[in-house]
Amino acid sequence: MNAELEASLRQKLDFTEDDLMANRDGKLSYAQRHKLKAKRQGVLVIGGLGITAVFAVLLKIIFDNQYQTNEKLAIATLTCLAFAVGLLYFWLKWSQYTSDLDRDVAFASEGRMQIVTYHNRGNNIYRLRVNRESFALDRHAFGLLTELAKECEYCAVYYAPRSHILLSFEALDSLNRHI
Questions:
Q1: H/E/C letters for each residue in the chain?
Q2: Architecture of the domain defined by 3-27+106-178
Q3: Contact status, residue 54 vs residue 82, Cβ threshold 8 Å
Q4: Global pTM?
Q5: What does the domain layout of the chain look like in residue ranges?
Q6: Average of pLDDT values for 13-40?
Q7: pLDDT (tens digit, 9 = 90+) per residue, 63-117?
């Protein structure tokens, strides 16, 4: 793989040689643990803002004389249901990040690289697939990996097992042979 493409891919996927070495050993690097902690903290902040917004809406509904009692009850019920679903989502994400940090492991998958585009309501969704694992990509990373796929067909991906975040990536000239 050419050095310029490799550097661009590492920058885009946000990993370093130290990250890759730690992942090869089945561990998270210091920087990756820090990133997972930041993501977990972000979930708490967004969840806290969501709770505040829901309580503000509920208070407005309760004390607003514009609505009749039945309307207040219906709107409050829907708001609480939306709150419960949102709370469940944020709890799930927080627990995934926490589990990945507690376990301090990086899973690996090696195999044939597939770069896939899905079309959904006028939007393109880009994915990297290796064996049964699939990772979301942005357009730029998709372009870089498409170029890389012309040079080699195999790769190894390293990821956090619960949150399924792509930690690092490396091209292989064949299975189990690093370039």
A1: CCHHHHHHHHHHHCCCHHHHHHHHCCECCHHHHHHHHHHHHHHHHHHHHHHHHHHHHHHHHHHCCCCCHHHHHHHHHHHHHHHHHHHHHHHHHHHHHHHHHHHCECEEEEEEEEEEEEEECCEEEEEEEECCEEEEECHHHHHHHHHHHHHCCEEEEEECCCCCCEEEEEEEEECCEEC
A2: Beta Barrel (2.40)
A3: yes
A4: 0.82
A5: 3-27+106-178, 33-103
A6: 96
A7: 777 767 777 778 778 888 888 888 899 999 999 999 999 999 999 999 999 999 9
